[in-house]
Structures are given as structure tokens and as C-alpha cells.
Amino acid sequence: MARMTLSRYLIEEQREKGVITADLKLLIEVVSRACKAISIAIGKGGLGGVLGEAGSDNVQGEAQKKLDVLSNEYLLEANEWGGHLAAMASEEMDLPHTIPHRYPQGEYLLLFDPLDGSSNIDVNISVGTIFSVLKCPEGADLSTPEAAEQAFLQPGTQQVAAGYTVYGPTTLLVLTVGDGVVEFTLDREVGAFVLTRSAMRIPEDTKEFAINMSNRRHWEAPVQRYVEEMQAGKEGPLGKDYNMRWVASMVADVHRIMTRGGIFMYPIDAKTRDKGGKLRLMYEANPMAFLVEQAGGAATTGYRRILDLQPEKLHQRVPVILGSKNEVLRVTGYHG
Ligand code: P6P
Fold this sequence. Notes:
The chain has an 8-stranded mixed sheet with strand order 4-3-5-6-7-8-9-10, with helices on both faces. A 5-stranded mixed sheet has the order 12-11-13-17-15, sandwiched between helices. The chain folds into 2 domains: 6-197, Fructose-1,6-Bisphosphatase, Chain A, domain 1 (2-Layer Sandwich); 208-334, 3-Layer(aba) Sandwich (D-Maltodextrin-Binding Protein, domain 2), CATH 3.40.190.80. Helix content is 31%, strand content 24%. Helix 2 runs antiparallel to helix 3. The chain contains 8 helices and 17 strands. The chain is α+β, with helices and mostly antiparallel strands. It has helices at 6-16, 22-44, 66-79, 145-152, 221-232, 250-260, 281-294, 325-334; strands at 53-57, 63-65, 85-90, 97-98, 108-116, 127-135, 161-167, 171-176, 181-187, 192-197, 208-210, 243-244, 263-266, 279-280, 298-300, 317-318, 320-323. 6-O-phosphono-alpha-D-fructofuranose binds next to helix 6.
């Protein structure tokens, strides 16, 4: 059978299944093209003069890498002329980017973390792009970037698509349009994303956990208990030995879990409590939670299902526990 490319997958989802519209198909294709350009820029590394600091800070007060700024620009430029978007929001921009009047406005809202884990860039560890798609509410006020923020504040259950790209040994695009999860691998010779996994499923049990152990003294009691039980191994209450991984690049850690199972935790802790957590709800936790649930996993804050949260601010942070369903339900149960 001919190779299934991203374009063909999207055409089938639109024409044969009616799962997506032509505009959503265009949106995803345009995002995938921007991610190809990001992959090429990253692949040049020091030879492309794009490593290191940009000399500016983002809305989170984090020093921006040159590739953070470049990736953000690629995604903005690729998406503003197509007529499929009403506005865009990014980790790298304080306010939403409304579509210039010279272009037609569409019905979708695109949110993204253009380069997640960029602190790993300079040490050649996998990073990625995370994106989420919502429908723009009827009659939304998009007259100014400040006014447009309100249109984005929808629970994760409202997402119509979500995905990530991992820029690693290979460049992968993992996508859901609400019809399961599929993985495409970038064929660099042809420049096409080719289907390499259909119907991705996260095993409901696991022996692998991902958490930044250096924060241990700051965790709440339920997470302390859970990690101690895993570290107790076969002789402990969980009756099996666990392994640990922490890439400190959410996309890389989540992709491992999407592929072979595991549990990822960035819980609320004493260090991040006043900010509400470390990871951002709208363009990190929500898209990843949508993908994880579509693959048979679970995603909570420890207290609530992430996709049910009603956002109050575009850049709000949230605790994240996601992955193999039975482990997520166990530690969520410990939170009472
Ligand atoms: P820490 C990267 O900066 C990021 O936002 C996620 O990709 C990653 O999971 C997390 O932060 C790593 O945080 O505290 O371990 O550096």
C-alpha cells in the first residue's frame, strides 16, 4: 500500500470520516510545515548561528533562546495568511496575535509552545513544539489583543485538535483530531510526514516514572507517599521494581510515555505553589492531556481532570500528572 502521509491522513479524516473541516486540515498542514522549518533550523545547531540566548525575556520572565523566538516567528508567519485562524496565542507572547486585517479571518484559535524544553537546546537534548486548537466562540471580541484573550479561555475538553513534534534523532509529529492518536515521522529526503504509528495506546500499567527528584522536599504528602512506594520496589506496597527517567523536556518525556507507558509528574510544590504550578495549562497541559486521554491514559492535577479546568488566564500554570491510567488514578486517589 502507498505510504500514508499526513496530507492523505487528513484528507481521509475530512472527506471519508467528516471528523475535520477543510480549514482544520489546512491549519494542521500549515503547522506541520512550520515544524519542518523548525526541525531544519534546530538540526543546524551551532552551524546555523541559532544557538544561545536571544537577549530578551518572555512573558514568563524566562530568558528566550534564539530558537524560541525563531520558532515562534515561523508559526506566526505560516498561519496568519491562510484564512483558517481567528487568532493565535503562544508561550512566547504576552498577548494573543490577532490576524492582520489584510487577511481573512477563520473559525479556529491556535495555541502553541513553539519550542518546549529549549533549555536543552544548547546541550543537544530533544526538544519539541506543542500545539492546541480551539474553535473561536461566535461573536468573540478580537478587536484588540487584550480583548482576544477571553476567546481562548475554554476548558481543554473544547479542543478540536492537539499535537506535538519531537525534534530528536528523528522528527516526529504526534496528532489527535479526536479520533485516536497517530504518529508521523519526517522523511527528510521527501520532506513529508509519513505515518509510522496509528492508534497509539498507552499501557494502563507501568514500571517507569518521570519526576524531577531534586524537588522532593517541596512535594505535597500524596506525591511523597507515591514516590516512596515506587522506590520501595518489590518489597514495597506496589510489589514491583520501578525505573525512573527525567529528560526535563516535556515533549520527550511524554512521547516516551505515549510509546511505552509511564507516569509523568510535575506536581504542585512549595516552590511553585504561588504560581499555581510549573507547566502551562493552555499550551502544554491541555494538548498533552487530550493526546494522553485519546491514547487511553489519564491526566489530572492530582485533584481534578486537567481537561475539565476552566482557565482564568492565558498563561496560567497547573500541576500535571499524566500517563498510564492505573498509576495516575492511584496517585490521584492518594490526593483524596
Ligand atoms: P525542571 C521545560 O522548561 C519545561 O517547561 C518542560 O518541558 C519540562 O518538563 C520542565 O519544564 C522541566 O522542569 O524544573 O525539571 O527544569
